[in-house]
């Protein structure tokens, strides 16, 4: 319903060309249509019911205002679930300005609801590349407003401030990043000695890796493909490029539906896991002519090249489940001899001179958030990974001088466990408590953390 409502607008006027105000008279936002706010508010309220951890965090910390004085500039997907995160940060005392990290994943009605409630939000579904950077700059470049925290998904916001506003970047107290791509870019800055602020790597927390990357993708890959192609999965041959947590989730879902799944992988450990899970490990060149679907999940670039695209069979479906749109070489398809035909929202047929066509989804951008929705409860855990985001922001913002150097840090295991514990009441689940004798035997505090930071569940 959200997707159809978002796509139903006949207004082709760019939001940048509109003069809009919310009911309080503020125009410090740029969304598709502020009149959609009431519909978006209902979506946010529904999401709140399925997000117990963030709501519990909001209730527990609201009186303390641990983010009072924090000025957070954020760049994430703008959905009902992330709206709950943003409003939680506001309830904890933060001032926020927000842009979208993906040009297709914004729910226009949710952005409108946030703008109506006073959040400076600059995002709409279907932004151009120029719009994307304009929105980020409108969040950052504001007279009399100096951000002191960054919440990023993909690293684009961080690098925009780093390159365009170096003096502003030096005054940032901390960065929280939750994507493979963004974390990789932070480690590159750190290695080059150019990271002058501490950063928290939320992506490699167990709650993010398992609940967002694995379980969320396991649920949403089928939904994204169904909504865009109406296909059946039984008997289809699929190649999944990458067997990290995202790849594992995609493979599990497709195998359960009766698909024949191949895996490509560069890491021998992940490769061995794929083999032990019953998947055939191949090189992409070996199966590219026969597969019905190609899915990238690597975080790398040019995983699917023009050569691969030329050799695909007629009607092969090509899509990406990684954050970045670099995995499929879409730019190589924008040549005069190929014809692009938009058949429905986020679905393009790219047609070769001989009549062969491939089905490209979301122009190679993130499939599940561009073409469908993701399960709200899983995103609650993510949104408590977003609560992990919130906790990471609280930790970095309130950390005493010197606790964190100019480096990239993993989310502390204690926080990871706390995020998980906030969700257990939803399942009527009851943790076993260590006795004093057992805690002493294991050398643990009875209240955790129960695993060392290096331990991966």
TrEMBL record:
List residues of the S-adenosyl-L-homocysteine hydrolase NAD binding domain.
213-374
Residues annotated for NAD(+) binding in this entry: 244-249, 265, 368
Q: Which GO terms describe its cellular component?
A: cytosol
- Tell me which InterPro entries the record gives: Adenosylhomocyst_ase-like_sf, Adenosylhomocysteinase-like, Ado_hCys_hydrolase_NAD-bd, NAD(P)-bd_dom_sf, S-Ado-L-homoCys_hydrolase_CS
Q: Which GO terms describe its molecular function?
A: adenosylhomocysteinase activity
EC code: 3.13.2.1
Instruction: Identify the keywords attached in UniProt to this record, alphabetized.
Output: Hydrolase, NAD, One-carbon metabolism
Give the record's cofactor note, including how many are bound.
Binds 1 NAD(+) per subunit.
**PROSITE patterns in the record, alphabetically?**
ADOHCYASE_1, ADOHCYASE_2
Entry's Pfam families?
AdoHcyase, AdoHcyase_NAD
- The residues forming a coiled coil are none
| One GO-annotated biological process of the protein | S-adenosylmethionine cycle
Q: In which pathway is this protein known to take part?
A: Amino-acid biosynthesis; L-homocysteine biosynthesis; L-homocysteine from S-adenosyl-L-homocysteine: step 1/1
Q: What NCBIfam families does the record point to?
A: ahcY, PRK05476.2-3
Q: What is this protein called?
A: Adenosylhomocysteinase
This protein's species is Rhynochetos jubatus
Which gene holds the coding sequence for this protein?
Ahcyl2
């Amino acid at each position: 319903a959200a997707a159809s409502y978002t796509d139903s607008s006949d207004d082709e006027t760019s939001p940048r060309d509109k003069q809009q105000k919310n009911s309080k008279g503020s125009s410090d936002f740029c969304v598709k249509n502020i009149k959609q706010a009431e519909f978006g508010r209902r979506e946010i309220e529904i999401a709140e019911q399925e997000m117990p951890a963030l709501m519990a965090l909001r209730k527990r910390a609201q009186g303390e205002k641990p983010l009072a004085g924090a000025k957070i500039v954020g760049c994430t997907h703008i959905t009902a679930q992330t709206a709950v995160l943003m409003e939680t940060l506001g309830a904890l005392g933060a001032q926020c300005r927000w842009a979208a990290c993906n040009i297709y994943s914004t729910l226009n009605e949710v952005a409108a609801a946030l703008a109506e409630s006073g959040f400076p939000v600059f995002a709409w579904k279907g932004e151009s590349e120029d719009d994307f950077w304009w929105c980020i700059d409108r969040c950052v470049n504001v007279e009399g407003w100096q951000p002191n925290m960054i919440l990023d998904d993909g690293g684009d916001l961080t690098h925009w401030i780093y390159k365009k506003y170096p003096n502003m970047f030096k005054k940032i107290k901390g960065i929280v990043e939750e994507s493979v791509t963004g974390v990789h870019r932070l480690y590159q800055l750190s290695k080059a000695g150019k990271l002058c602020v501490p950063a928290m790597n939320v992506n490699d927390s167990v709650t993010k890796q398992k609940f967002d990357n694995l379980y969320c993708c396991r649920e949403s890959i089928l939904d994204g493909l169904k909504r865009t192609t109406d296909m059946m999965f039984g008997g289809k041959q699929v190649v999944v490029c990458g067997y990290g947590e995202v790849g594992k989730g995609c493979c599990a879902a497709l195998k359960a539906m009766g698909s024949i799944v191949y895996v490509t992988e560069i890491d021998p450990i992940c490769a061995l896991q794929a083999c032990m899970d019953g998947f055939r490990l191949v090189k992409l060149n070996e199966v590219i002519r026969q597969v019905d679907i190609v899915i990238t999940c690597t975080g790398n670039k040019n995983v699917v090249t023009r050569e691969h695209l030329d050799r695909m069979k007629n009607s092969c479906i090509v899509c990406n489940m990684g954050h970045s749109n670099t995995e499929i070489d879409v730019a190589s398809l924008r040549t005069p001899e190929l014809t692009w035909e938009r058949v429905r929202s986020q679905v393009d047929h790219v047609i070769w001179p001989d009549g062969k066509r491939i089905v490209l989804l979301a122009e190679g951008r993130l499939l599940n958030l561009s073409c469908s929705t993701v399960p709200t409860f899983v995103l609650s855990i993510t949104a408590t990974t977003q609560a992990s985001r919130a906790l990471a922001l609280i930790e970095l913002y309130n950390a005493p001088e010197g606790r964190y150097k100019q480096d990239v840090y993993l989310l502390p295991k204690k926080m990871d466990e706390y995020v998980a514990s906030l969700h257990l009441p939803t399942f009527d689940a009851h943790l076993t408590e260590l006795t004093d004798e057992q805690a002493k035997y294991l050398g643990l505090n009875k209240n955790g953390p129960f695993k060392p930071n290096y331990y991966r569940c």
